[in-house]
Protein backbone atom coordinates (compact mmCIF):
# COMPACT_ATOMS: atom_id res chain seq x y z
CA UNK A 1 0.00 0.00 0.00
CA UNK A 2 1.67 3.18 -1.03
CA UNK A 3 1.20 6.67 -2.16
CA UNK A 4 0.36 6.61 -5.78
CA UNK A 5 1.24 10.10 -6.51
CA UNK A 6 0.02 11.48 -9.70
CA UNK A 7 1.43 14.68 -11.00
CA UNK A 8 -2.01 16.05 -11.56
CA UNK A 9 -3.98 15.38 -8.53
CA UNK A 10 -3.78 13.87 -5.13
CA UNK A 11 -6.03 13.60 -2.17
CA UNK A 12 -4.85 12.04 1.03
CA UNK A 13 -7.50 10.18 2.83
CA UNK A 14 -8.06 8.01 5.76
CA UNK A 15 -10.97 5.96 6.81
CA UNK A 16 -12.19 3.44 9.30
CA UNK A 17 -14.14 0.76 7.56
CA UNK A 18 -17.20 -1.17 8.56
CA UNK A 19 -15.78 -4.39 9.79
CA UNK A 20 -12.22 -3.72 10.52
CA UNK A 21 -10.14 -1.04 11.90
CA UNK A 22 -8.44 0.00 8.78
CA UNK A 23 -6.22 2.75 7.66
CA UNK A 24 -5.77 3.71 4.13
CA UNK A 25 -3.52 6.40 2.97
CA UNK A 26 -4.45 6.64 -0.53
CA UNK A 27 -4.15 9.11 -3.25
CA UNK A 28 -6.98 9.21 -5.65
CA UNK A 29 -6.88 10.95 -8.93
CA UNK A 30 -10.00 12.97 -9.45
CA UNK A 31 -11.28 12.31 -12.89
CA UNK A 32 -12.22 15.92 -13.38
CA UNK A 33 -9.10 17.20 -11.79
CA UNK A 34 -7.45 20.33 -12.91
CA UNK A 35 -3.73 20.92 -12.68
CA UNK A 36 -3.99 23.06 -9.59
CA UNK A 37 -4.83 20.04 -7.49
CA UNK A 38 -1.49 18.69 -6.57
CA UNK A 39 0.32 17.54 -3.54
CA UNK A 40 3.45 19.40 -2.76
CA UNK A 41 5.02 18.00 0.32
CA UNK A 42 4.14 15.25 2.70
CA UNK A 43 5.71 14.92 6.05
CA UNK A 44 4.76 13.29 9.27
CA UNK A 45 4.61 15.01 12.58
CA UNK A 46 5.72 13.00 15.53
CA UNK A 47 5.86 15.39 18.39
CA UNK A 48 4.90 18.74 16.98
CA UNK A 49 1.81 19.94 18.70
CA UNK A 50 0.42 23.20 17.47
CA UNK A 51 -2.78 21.40 16.73
CA UNK A 52 -5.22 22.19 19.48
CA UNK A 53 -6.55 25.00 17.36
CA UNK A 54 -7.57 22.72 14.56
CA UNK A 55 -9.44 20.20 16.65
CA UNK A 56 -11.88 22.38 18.52
CA UNK A 57 -14.15 24.12 16.11
CA UNK A 58 -17.50 24.09 17.80
CA UNK A 59 -20.01 25.40 15.33
CA UNK A 60 -20.54 23.53 12.15
CA UNK A 61 -19.23 24.98 8.99
CA UNK A 62 -21.21 26.06 6.02
CA UNK A 63 -21.92 22.81 4.19
CA UNK A 64 -20.88 24.47 0.97
CA UNK A 65 -17.37 24.76 2.30
CA UNK A 66 -17.03 21.04 2.77
CA UNK A 67 -15.73 20.08 -0.62
CA UNK A 68 -12.82 22.41 -1.03
CA UNK A 69 -10.14 23.06 1.50
CA UNK A 70 -9.43 26.74 2.14
CA UNK A 71 -5.89 27.07 3.37
CA UNK A 72 -4.59 29.62 5.81
CA UNK A 73 -1.21 30.14 7.43
CA UNK A 74 -2.25 27.87 10.28
CA UNK A 75 -2.42 24.12 10.11
CA UNK A 76 -5.97 22.98 9.44
CA UNK A 77 -7.43 19.53 9.20
CA UNK A 78 -8.08 18.29 5.69
CA UNK A 79 -11.25 16.26 5.71
CA UNK A 80 -11.46 13.04 3.76
CA UNK A 81 -12.53 13.74 0.23
CA UNK A 82 -11.69 17.41 0.34
CA UNK A 83 -9.90 18.76 -2.66
CA UNK A 84 -6.64 20.37 -1.74
CA UNK A 85 -5.30 23.21 -3.86
CA UNK A 86 -1.76 23.10 -5.12
CA UNK A 87 1.24 24.55 -3.38
CA UNK A 88 0.31 23.68 0.15
CA UNK A 89 2.30 22.20 2.92
CA UNK A 90 0.64 18.95 3.89
CA UNK A 91 1.35 16.65 6.77
CA UNK A 92 -0.12 13.67 8.49
CA UNK A 93 -0.48 14.40 12.13
CA UNK A 94 -0.03 11.13 13.95
CA UNK A 95 -1.34 12.51 17.16
CA UNK A 96 -4.75 13.26 15.78
CA UNK A 97 -4.76 10.96 12.80
CA UNK A 98 -5.72 13.84 10.57
CA UNK A 99 -4.13 15.27 7.53
CA UNK A 100 -3.36 18.89 7.90
CA UNK A 101 -2.40 21.56 5.46
CA UNK A 102 -1.43 25.20 5.39
CA UNK A 103 0.00 27.77 3.04
CA UNK A 104 3.71 27.68 2.46
CA UNK A 105 5.60 30.45 4.11
CA UNK A 106 7.51 32.30 1.45
CA UNK A 107 10.78 32.84 3.17
CA UNK A 108 11.17 29.63 5.03
CA UNK A 109 13.25 27.87 2.45
CA UNK A 110 13.77 24.57 4.18
CA UNK A 111 12.34 21.65 2.22
CA UNK A 112 9.57 23.62 0.70
CA UNK A 113 10.29 23.20 -2.91
CA UNK A 114 11.18 19.61 -2.66
CA UNK A 115 9.45 17.45 -5.21
CA UNK A 116 6.56 15.19 -4.36
CA UNK A 117 8.13 12.37 -2.43
CA UNK A 118 8.66 9.06 -4.15
CA UNK A 119 6.03 6.48 -3.51
CA UNK A 120 7.14 5.29 -0.14
CA UNK A 121 4.93 2.66 1.36
CA UNK A 122 2.97 3.81 4.34
CA UNK A 123 4.13 0.83 6.30
CA UNK A 124 7.73 1.88 5.78
CA UNK A 125 6.97 5.25 7.15
CA UNK A 126 4.82 4.43 10.14
CA UNK A 127 4.66 1.50 12.50
CA UNK A 128 1.46 -0.43 12.94
CA UNK A 129 1.16 0.93 16.47
CA UNK A 130 1.39 4.47 15.23
CA UNK A 131 -1.25 3.80 12.63
CA UNK A 132 -3.63 2.31 15.11
CA UNK A 133 -3.03 5.17 17.46
CA UNK A 134 -3.74 7.62 14.69
CA UNK A 135 -6.90 5.77 13.77
CA UNK A 136 -8.16 5.69 17.30
CA UNK A 137 -7.91 9.43 17.28
CA UNK A 138 -9.20 9.93 13.81
CA UNK A 139 -12.74 10.29 15.02
CA UNK A 140 -12.12 13.20 17.29
CA UNK A 141 -11.51 15.68 14.55
CA UNK A 142 -14.89 14.96 13.06
CA UNK A 143 -17.02 15.05 16.11
CA UNK A 144 -18.38 18.51 15.62
CA UNK A 145 -19.77 17.86 12.21
CA UNK A 146 -23.52 17.76 12.45
CA UNK A 147 -25.20 14.38 12.15
CA UNK A 148 -26.57 14.51 8.64
CA UNK A 149 -23.43 16.03 7.22
CA UNK A 150 -21.49 13.40 9.03
CA UNK A 151 -23.58 10.60 7.60
CA UNK A 152 -23.26 11.95 4.07
CA UNK A 153 -19.64 12.23 4.68
CA UNK A 154 -19.19 8.64 5.70
CA UNK A 155 -21.19 7.46 2.76
CA UNK A 156 -18.99 9.51 0.53
CA UNK A 157 -15.92 7.98 2.10
CA UNK A 158 -17.29 4.50 1.62
CA UNK A 159 -18.14 5.16 -1.96
CA UNK A 160 -14.67 6.31 -2.78
CA UNK A 161 -12.61 3.75 -1.02
CA UNK A 162 -11.51 0.27 -1.62
CA UNK A 163 -13.70 -2.70 -0.84
CA UNK A 164 -13.21 -4.04 2.64
CA UNK A 165 -11.81 -7.37 1.47
CA UNK A 166 -9.02 -5.59 -0.30
CA UNK A 167 -8.23 -3.47 2.69
CA UNK A 168 -8.26 -6.47 4.93
CA UNK A 169 -5.63 -8.16 2.82
CA UNK A 170 -3.44 -5.12 2.94
CA UNK A 171 -3.75 -5.01 6.66
CA UNK A 172 -2.88 -8.62 7.04
CA UNK A 173 0.26 -7.93 5.08
CA UNK A 174 1.05 -5.19 7.51
CA UNK A 175 0.43 -7.57 10.40
CA UNK A 176 -2.28 -5.46 11.88
CA UNK A 177 -4.73 -7.70 13.62
CA UNK A 178 -8.17 -7.40 12.17
CA UNK A 179 -10.89 -7.29 14.79
CA UNK A 180 -14.60 -7.42 14.30
CA UNK A 181 -16.65 -4.42 15.26
CA UNK A 182 -18.28 -6.53 17.96
CA UNK A 183 -14.91 -7.22 19.59
CA UNK A 184 -13.90 -3.61 19.35
CA UNK A 185 -17.17 -2.42 20.81
CA UNK A 186 -16.90 -4.86 23.69
CA UNK A 187 -13.53 -3.38 24.58
CA UNK A 188 -14.78 0.16 24.29
CA UNK A 189 -17.76 -0.54 26.52
CA UNK A 190 -15.50 -2.13 29.09
CA UNK A 191 -13.27 0.91 28.99
CA UNK A 192 -16.33 3.04 29.64
CA UNK A 193 -17.80 0.80 32.32
CA UNK A 194 -14.76 0.21 34.48
CA UNK A 195 -14.47 2.24 37.63
CA UNK A 196 -10.76 2.49 36.93
CA UNK A 197 -11.34 4.92 34.06
CA UNK A 198 -11.24 8.64 34.61
CA UNK A 199 -13.97 10.86 33.24
CA UNK A 200 -11.68 11.84 30.37
CA UNK A 201 -11.09 8.20 29.52
CA UNK A 202 -14.78 7.49 29.63
CA UNK A 203 -15.52 10.42 27.37
CA UNK A 204 -12.89 9.11 25.04
CA UNK A 205 -14.52 5.70 25.00
CA UNK A 206 -17.83 7.34 24.18
CA UNK A 207 -16.27 9.17 21.23
CA UNK A 208 -15.06 5.86 19.90
CA UNK A 209 -18.36 4.14 20.52
CA UNK A 210 -20.27 6.90 18.76
CA UNK A 211 -18.35 6.18 15.61
CA UNK A 212 -19.39 2.54 15.57
CA UNK A 213 -23.07 2.88 16.36
CA UNK A 214 -23.86 4.72 13.14
CA UNK A 215 -23.93 1.31 11.52
CA UNK A 216 -27.30 -0.36 11.97
CA UNK A 217 -25.69 -3.66 12.93
CA UNK A 218 -23.45 -2.02 15.45
CA UNK A 219 -26.32 -0.17 17.04
CA UNK A 220 -27.87 -3.58 17.57
CA UNK A 221 -24.58 -4.85 18.95
CA UNK A 222 -24.83 -2.06 21.45
CA UNK A 223 -28.12 -3.57 22.56
CA UNK A 224 -26.68 -7.06 22.79
CA UNK A 225 -23.77 -5.83 24.86
CA UNK A 226 -26.03 -4.05 27.32
CA UNK A 227 -24.43 -0.82 26.26
CA UNK A 228 -27.62 1.04 25.49
CA UNK A 229 -28.96 0.57 28.99
CA UNK A 230 -25.61 1.57 30.41
CA UNK A 231 -25.72 4.82 28.45
CA UNK A 232 -29.29 5.55 29.42
CA UNK A 233 -28.30 5.08 33.05
CA UNK A 234 -25.66 7.72 32.60
CA UNK A 235 -28.16 10.34 31.50
CA UNK A 236 -28.69 11.21 35.13
CA UNK A 237 -25.03 11.19 35.96
CA UNK A 238 -23.82 14.15 37.96
CA UNK A 239 -20.90 14.57 35.57
CA UNK A 240 -22.13 16.79 32.70
CA UNK A 241 -19.53 15.46 30.28
CA UNK A 242 -20.81 11.93 30.71
CA UNK A 243 -24.40 13.04 30.19
CA UNK A 244 -23.42 14.94 27.08
CA UNK A 245 -21.48 12.16 25.46
CA UNK A 246 -23.86 9.41 26.47
CA UNK A 247 -26.63 11.41 24.81
CA UNK A 248 -24.48 11.77 21.73
CA UNK A 249 -23.98 8.02 21.41
CA UNK A 250 -27.66 7.37 22.07
CA UNK A 251 -28.61 9.88 19.37
CA UNK A 252 -26.43 8.20 16.80
CA UNK A 253 -27.51 4.69 17.77
CA UNK A 254 -31.20 5.57 17.45
CA UNK A 255 -30.97 7.51 14.23
CA UNK A 256 -32.97 5.65 11.58
CA UNK A 257 -32.91 2.47 13.60
CA UNK A 258 -36.47 1.53 14.62
CA UNK A 259 -35.48 -1.52 16.63
CA UNK A 260 -33.11 0.46 18.81
CA UNK A 261 -35.60 3.31 19.08
CA UNK A 262 -38.16 0.95 20.55
CA UNK A 263 -35.67 -0.60 22.96
CA UNK A 264 -34.49 2.80 24.11
CA UNK A 265 -38.04 3.93 24.62
CA UNK A 266 -38.80 0.86 26.69
CA UNK A 267 -35.70 1.41 28.75
CA UNK A 268 -37.02 4.82 29.74
CA UNK A 269 -34.80 6.94 27.55
CA UNK A 270 -37.48 9.44 26.57
CA UNK A 271 -38.28 10.44 30.15
CA UNK A 272 -34.61 10.76 30.99
CA UNK A 273 -33.84 12.86 27.95
CA UNK A 274 -36.68 15.20 28.83
CA UNK A 275 -35.43 15.43 32.40
CA UNK A 276 -32.03 16.50 31.16
CA UNK A 277 -33.60 19.05 28.85
CA UNK A 278 -35.72 20.46 31.67
CA UNK A 279 -32.87 20.73 34.15
CA UNK A 280 -30.22 23.39 34.55
CA UNK A 281 -27.43 22.06 32.36
CA UNK A 282 -24.75 23.51 30.15
CA UNK A 283 -25.85 24.26 26.61
CA UNK A 284 -23.38 21.71 25.26
CA UNK A 285 -25.22 19.01 27.23
CA UNK A 286 -28.59 20.18 25.99
CA UNK A 287 -27.41 20.26 22.42
CA UNK A 288 -26.47 16.60 22.39
CA UNK A 289 -29.54 15.68 24.40
CA UNK A 290 -31.71 17.44 21.86
CA UNK A 291 -29.94 15.44 19.19
CA UNK A 292 -30.80 12.23 21.05
CA UNK A 293 -34.39 13.37 21.46
CA UNK A 294 -34.67 14.03 17.71
CA UNK A 295 -33.39 10.57 16.94
CA UNK A 296 -35.83 9.11 19.41
CA UNK A 297 -38.86 10.88 17.96
CA UNK A 298 -38.34 10.82 14.22
CA UNK A 299 -40.52 8.28 12.45
CA UNK A 300 -41.66 6.91 15.79
CA UNK A 301 -45.25 8.11 16.31
CA UNK A 302 -45.73 6.35 19.61
CA UNK A 303 -42.75 8.15 21.14
CA UNK A 304 -44.02 11.43 19.67
CA UNK A 305 -47.33 10.90 21.37
CA UNK A 306 -45.65 10.24 24.70
CA UNK A 307 -43.44 13.27 24.17
CA UNK A 308 -46.58 15.39 23.94
CA UNK A 309 -48.13 13.76 26.97
CA UNK A 310 -45.02 14.31 29.04
CA UNK A 311 -45.07 18.01 28.28
CA UNK A 312 -42.07 17.85 25.98
CA UNK A 313 -43.21 20.79 23.90
CA UNK A 314 -43.33 23.02 26.95
CA UNK A 315 -39.85 21.92 27.98
CA UNK A 316 -38.52 22.94 24.58
CA UNK A 317 -40.37 26.22 24.76
CA UNK A 318 -38.66 27.04 28.03
CA UNK A 319 -35.32 27.14 26.20
CA UNK A 320 -36.41 30.42 24.71
CA UNK A 321 -36.50 32.06 28.10
CA UNK A 322 -33.03 30.91 29.03
CA UNK A 323 -29.82 32.80 28.49
CA UNK A 324 -27.10 31.69 26.09
CA UNK A 325 -29.31 29.10 24.53
CA UNK A 326 -29.39 30.69 21.06
CA UNK A 327 -27.59 27.78 19.50
CA UNK A 328 -30.51 25.56 20.51
CA UNK A 329 -33.24 27.68 18.95
CA UNK A 330 -32.82 26.65 15.36
CA UNK A 331 -32.35 23.04 16.36
CA UNK A 332 -35.66 23.10 18.19
CA UNK A 333 -37.47 24.76 15.31
CA UNK A 334 -35.95 22.29 12.87
CA UNK A 335 -37.10 19.36 14.95
CA UNK A 336 -40.65 20.66 15.24
CA UNK A 337 -40.80 21.53 11.56
CA UNK A 338 -39.57 18.09 10.59
CA UNK A 339 -42.05 16.33 12.85
CA UNK A 340 -44.97 18.33 11.50
CA UNK A 341 -43.83 17.64 7.94
CA UNK A 342 -43.40 13.97 8.70
CA UNK A 343 -47.11 13.75 9.43
CA UNK A 344 -48.17 15.99 6.56
CA UNK A 345 -46.19 14.07 3.97
CA UNK A 346 -47.87 10.91 5.10
CA UNK A 347 -51.22 12.33 4.14
CA UNK A 348 -50.05 13.28 0.67
CA UNK A 349 -50.44 9.79 -0.69
CA UNK A 350 -52.51 7.13 0.96
CA UNK A 351 -52.45 4.24 -1.41
CA UNK A 352 -51.22 1.36 0.67
CA UNK A 353 -52.69 -0.14 3.73
CA UNK A 354 -49.41 0.36 5.50
CA UNK A 355 -49.61 4.10 5.02
CA UNK A 356 -53.19 4.12 6.22
CA UNK A 357 -52.19 2.33 9.39
CA UNK A 358 -49.48 4.86 9.95
CA UNK A 359 -51.92 7.67 9.43
CA UNK A 360 -54.04 6.20 12.19
CA UNK A 361 -51.07 6.40 14.55
CA UNK A 362 -50.22 9.93 13.57
CA UNK A 363 -53.80 11.11 13.96
CA UNK A 364 -53.33 11.07 17.69
CA UNK A 365 -50.40 13.44 17.48
CA UNK A 366 -51.74 16.95 17.35
CA UNK A 367 -48.34 18.59 17.24
CA UNK A 368 -49.12 21.45 14.89
CA UNK A 369 -52.25 22.26 16.84
CA UNK A 370 -50.31 22.26 20.10
CA UNK A 371 -47.57 24.46 18.65
CA UNK A 372 -50.13 27.07 17.73
CA UNK A 373 -52.07 26.76 20.95
CA UNK A 374 -48.98 27.11 23.10
CA UNK A 375 -48.02 30.34 21.44
CA UNK A 376 -45.00 29.39 19.35
CA UNK A 377 -45.81 31.66 16.40
CA UNK A 378 -44.12 34.81 17.68
CA UNK A 379 -41.23 32.77 19.07
CA UNK A 380 -40.56 31.31 15.66
CA UNK A 381 -41.05 34.45 13.60
CA UNK A 382 -38.72 36.27 15.95
CA UNK A 383 -35.91 33.96 14.89
CA UNK A 384 -35.81 35.56 11.45
CA UNK A 385 -33.36 37.94 13.05
CA UNK A 386 -30.71 35.28 13.06
CA UNK A 387 -27.94 36.11 10.63
CA UNK A 388 -27.25 32.63 9.26
CA UNK A 389 -28.92 31.83 5.99
CA UNK A 390 -29.62 28.22 6.80
CA UNK A 391 -31.28 29.26 10.05
CA UNK A 392 -33.42 31.77 8.17
CA UNK A 393 -34.32 29.12 5.64
CA UNK A 394 -35.70 26.85 8.39
CA UNK A 395 -37.52 29.74 9.99
CA UNK A 396 -39.07 30.91 6.72
CA UNK A 397 -40.27 27.41 6.01
CA UNK A 398 -41.74 27.12 9.48
CA UNK A 399 -43.49 30.47 9.11
CA UNK A 400 -45.05 29.24 5.86
CA UNK A 401 -46.21 26.13 7.61
CA UNK A 402 -47.78 28.11 10.42
CA UNK A 403 -49.23 30.83 8.22
CA UNK A 404 -52.78 29.48 7.93
CA UNK A 405 -53.17 29.52 11.69
CA UNK A 406 -50.85 32.31 12.73
CA UNK A 407 -51.52 34.85 10.01
CA UNK A 408 -53.41 37.27 12.21
CA UNK A 409 -50.68 37.19 14.80
CA UNK A 410 -47.95 37.62 12.18
CA UNK A 411 -49.73 40.56 10.66
CA UNK A 412 -49.85 42.38 13.96
CA UNK A 413 -46.10 42.12 14.21
CA UNK A 414 -44.82 45.13 12.31
CA UNK A 415 -41.24 44.10 12.99
CA UNK A 416 -41.83 40.96 11.04
CA UNK A 417 -42.90 42.91 7.98
CA UNK A 418 -39.83 45.13 8.26
CA UNK A 419 -37.52 42.17 8.59
CA UNK A 420 -39.12 40.42 5.65
CA UNK A 421 -38.69 43.51 3.50
CA UNK A 422 -35.04 43.78 4.39
CA UNK A 423 -34.50 40.08 3.77
CA UNK A 424 -36.09 40.46 0.37
CA UNK A 425 -33.69 43.27 -0.52
CA UNK A 426 -30.74 41.32 0.75
CA UNK A 427 -31.66 38.20 -1.20
CA UNK A 428 -32.48 40.15 -4.35
CA UNK A 429 -28.90 41.41 -4.37
CA UNK A 430 -27.41 38.04 -3.58
CA UNK A 431 -29.62 36.40 -6.18
CA UNK A 432 -28.45 38.93 -8.77
CA UNK A 433 -24.81 38.17 -7.93
CA UNK A 434 -25.49 34.49 -8.12
CA UNK A 435 -27.09 34.87 -11.53
CA UNK A 436 -24.16 36.96 -12.74
CA UNK A 437 -21.89 34.11 -11.85
CA UNK A 438 -24.03 31.88 -14.04
CA UNK A 439 -26.16 30.07 -11.50
CA UNK A 440 -29.87 30.22 -12.29
CA UNK A 441 -31.79 28.38 -9.60
CA UNK A 442 -29.21 28.79 -6.89
CA UNK A 443 -29.45 28.88 -3.13
CA UNK A 444 -30.16 32.59 -2.87
CA UNK A 445 -32.78 32.35 -5.56
CA UNK A 446 -34.48 29.73 -3.43
CA UNK A 447 -34.24 31.93 -0.35
CA UNK A 448 -35.59 34.86 -2.32
CA UNK A 449 -38.53 32.78 -3.52
CA UNK A 450 -39.18 31.62 -0.01
CA UNK A 451 -39.11 35.16 1.34
CA UNK A 452 -41.37 36.40 -1.44
CA UNK A 453 -43.85 33.67 -0.89
CA UNK A 454 -44.04 34.43 2.83
CA UNK A 455 -44.52 38.13 2.05
CA UNK A 456 -47.22 37.47 -0.51
CA UNK A 457 -48.95 35.00 1.69
CA UNK A 458 -48.94 37.41 4.58
CA UNK A 459 -50.08 40.31 2.47
CA UNK A 460 -52.67 38.63 0.34
CA UNK A 461 -55.17 38.21 3.09
CA UNK A 462 -54.56 41.76 4.26
CA UNK A 463 -55.86 42.83 0.90
CA UNK A 464 -58.58 40.26 1.02
CA UNK A 465 -59.96 41.67 4.24
C1 LIG B 1 -20.68 -2.73 33.94
O1 LIG B 1 -20.03 -3.06 35.15
C2 LIG B 1 -20.89 -3.66 36.12
C3 LIG B 1 -20.10 -3.81 37.41
O2 LIG B 1 -18.76 -3.98 37.17
C4 LIG B 1 -21.38 -5.00 35.58
O3 LIG B 1 -22.23 -5.61 36.51
C5 LIG B 1 -22.14 -4.74 34.29
O4 LIG B 1 -22.55 -5.94 33.72
C6 LIG B 1 -21.29 -3.97 33.31
N1 LIG B 1 -22.13 -3.58 32.20
C7 LIG B 1 -21.79 -3.80 30.92
C8 LIG B 1 -22.77 -3.38 29.89
O5 LIG B 1 -20.75 -4.31 30.57
C1 LIG C 1 -30.03 7.40 37.75
O1 LIG C 1 -31.36 7.07 38.12
C2 LIG C 1 -31.59 5.70 38.37
C3 LIG C 1 -33.04 5.50 38.70
O2 LIG C 1 -33.85 6.18 37.78
C4 LIG C 1 -30.71 5.21 39.50
O3 LIG C 1 -30.87 3.82 39.67
C5 LIG C 1 -29.27 5.52 39.17
O4 LIG C 1 -28.44 5.18 40.25
C6 LIG C 1 -29.08 6.98 38.86
N1 LIG C 1 -27.72 7.21 38.44
C7 LIG C 1 -26.98 8.21 38.88
C8 LIG C 1 -25.60 8.29 38.34
O5 LIG C 1 -27.39 9.01 39.66
C1 LIG D 1 -56.03 10.53 1.80
O1 LIG D 1 -57.09 10.15 2.69
C2 LIG D 1 -57.68 11.24 3.38
C3 LIG D 1 -58.75 10.70 4.30
O2 LIG D 1 -58.28 9.59 4.98
C4 LIG D 1 -58.28 12.22 2.36
O3 LIG D 1 -58.83 13.31 3.03
C5 LIG D 1 -57.21 12.69 1.41
O4 LIG D 1 -57.77 13.50 0.41
C6 LIG D 1 -56.51 11.49 0.75
N1 LIG D 1 -55.40 11.99 -0.04
C7 LIG D 1 -55.14 11.54 -1.28
C8 LIG D 1 -53.96 12.14 -1.95
O5 LIG D 1 -55.80 10.69 -1.81
C1 LIG E 1 -37.95 30.75 -7.98
O1 LIG E 1 -39.11 31.21 -8.64
C2 LIG E 1 -38.96 31.38 -10.06
C3 LIG E 1 -40.21 32.02 -10.60
O2 LIG E 1 -41.37 31.38 -10.13
C4 LIG E 1 -38.65 30.03 -10.69
O3 LIG E 1 -38.46 30.15 -12.06
C5 LIG E 1 -37.38 29.46 -10.04
O4 LIG E 1 -37.11 28.15 -10.53
C6 LIG E 1 -37.53 29.41 -8.54
N1 LIG E 1 -36.24 29.03 -7.97
C7 LIG E 1 -36.03 27.94 -7.28
C8 LIG E 1 -34.65 27.73 -6.75
O5 LIG E 1 -36.91 27.14 -7.05
C1 LIG F 1 -48.94 44.69 0.93
O1 LIG F 1 -50.19 45.19 0.64
C2 LIG F 1 -50.34 46.59 0.83
C3 LIG F 1 -51.78 46.99 0.65
O2 LIG F 1 -52.28 46.48 -0.54
C4 LIG F 1 -49.38 47.31 -0.12
O3 LIG F 1 -49.46 48.69 0.06
C5 LIG F 1 -47.97 46.86 0.16
O4 LIG F 1 -47.07 47.44 -0.76
C6 LIG F 1 -47.86 45.36 0.07
N1 LIG F 1 -46.55 44.96 0.54
C7 LIG F 1 -45.78 44.14 -0.10
C8 LIG F 1 -44.48 43.88 0.54
O5 LIG F 1 -46.14 43.60 -1.14
Automatic annotation (TrEMBL):
GO terms for biological process: protein transport. Gene3D superfamilies: Leucine-rich Repeat Variant. Residues 1-33 form the signal peptide. GO terms for cellular component: endoplasmic reticulum lumen. GO terms for molecular function: adenyl-nucleotide exchange factor activity. Keywords: Endoplasmic reticulum, Glycoprotein, Protein transport, Signal, Translocation, Transport. InterPro entries: ARM-like, ARM-type_fold, Hsp70_NEF-Inhibitors. It comes from the Eukaryota. The keyword Protein transport applies. It is found in: Endoplasmic reticulum lumen. Belongs to the SIL1 family. Required for protein translocation and folding in the endoplasmic reticulum (ER). Functions as a nucleotide exchange factor for the ER lumenal chaperone HSPA5. This is Nucleotide exchange factor SIL1.
